Amino acid sequence: MAKVILVTGGSRSGKSRLAEQLTEGFGTPLGYIATAAAGDAEMAARIARHQQRRGPEWQTLEEPLDLCGVITGHDGYFQAMLVDCLTLWLTNLLLQHHSPEPALAEVTRLTSAFASLKSPLVLVSSEVGMGIVPENALARSFRDLAGEANQLIAAAADEVYVAIAGIPLKLKG
C-alpha cells in the first residue's frame, strides 16, 4: 500500500504549494490530476499560474468526475500523484447529481482504492466548515458534503496536514 496524504486548509492558505512539495519528495515523474475546468478567463488564469509553478516533471491529467478511475488507471506509472482539488470534484459531482449521496458514494469508492495503490497519493481539499452557515440549501448541502468527505478521507489517509497562512501543521501520521 502506498502512502496517502490529505492536505486541507482555507482559500489561499498555501495548501496547494504544500501538497506539491510533499508530492515532489517522492521523485519523478509526477502526475497532477486537476478537477477544475476553466469556465471563465479568471479561472483559466488561475490554472495557468498553477501550471507555470510546476515544472516539466509533472504530467497534468484533467478529470472533473471519475477521479477514482483516473487514479487507479494511472497507478504505478507515476512516482506519486497529486489531486487538486477534492472540493471542486465534489462540486462537480453535486451539480451533476443534484444530491450529495452519489458524491459520498464516490468518496467511499476512492477511499476503498487507497489500500491497493502502488503510487503515493496526495490529495488537496478545502476546509469549508469554519465559516458561517450558508443562507441557501445548495450551499449548505455542499458545505455538509465537503465536511463529511474530508472526514472520511482524513480517516483513511496515512497523513493529514492543514495549511494556515502558508504554515503547514501536521495533524496525523
Secondary-structure blueprint of this entry?
Blueprint: E1 4-9, H1 15-24, E2 30-34, H2 41-53, E3 58-62, H3 67-74, E4 80-84, H4 86-97, H5 100-113, E5 121-126, H6 137-156, E6 159-164, E7 167-172
Helix pairs in contact: 4-6, 5-6
Function: Catalyzes ATP-dependent phosphorylation of adenosylcobinamide and addition of GMP to adenosylcobinamide phosphate.
Keywords: ATP-binding, Cobalamin biosynthesis, GTP-binding, Kinase, Nucleotide-binding, Nucleotidyltransferase, Transferase
Protein name: Adenosylcobinamide kinase
What does this structure look like?
It catalyses: adenosylcob(III)inamide + ATP = adenosylcob(III)inamide phosphate + ADP + H(+); adenosylcob(III)inamide phosphate + GTP + H(+) = adenosylcob(III)inamide-GDP + diphosphate; adenosylcob(III)inamide + GTP = adenosylcob(III)inamide phosphate + GDP + H(+). Catalyzes ATP-dependent phosphorylation of adenosylcobinamide and addition of GMP to adenosylcobinamide phosphate. GTP binds at residues 9-16, 34-36, 62, 84. The chain is α/β, with parallel strands linked by helices and 173 residues long. The chain has one domain: 3-Layer(aba) Sandwich (Rossmann fold). Helix content is 45%, strand content 23%. It is built from six helices and seven strands. It has helices spanning 15-24, 41-53, 67-74, 86-97, 100-113, 137-156; strands at residues 4-9, 30-34, 58-62, 80-84, 121-126, 159-164, 167-172. It has a seven-stranded mixed β-sheet, sandwiched between helices. Helix 2 (41-53) links the parallel strand 2 (30-34) and strand 3. Helix 4 crosses helix 6 (137-156). The longest helix is centred in the last third of the chain and has 20 residues, at 137-156. The model has no long low-confidence stretch (mean pLDDT 94).
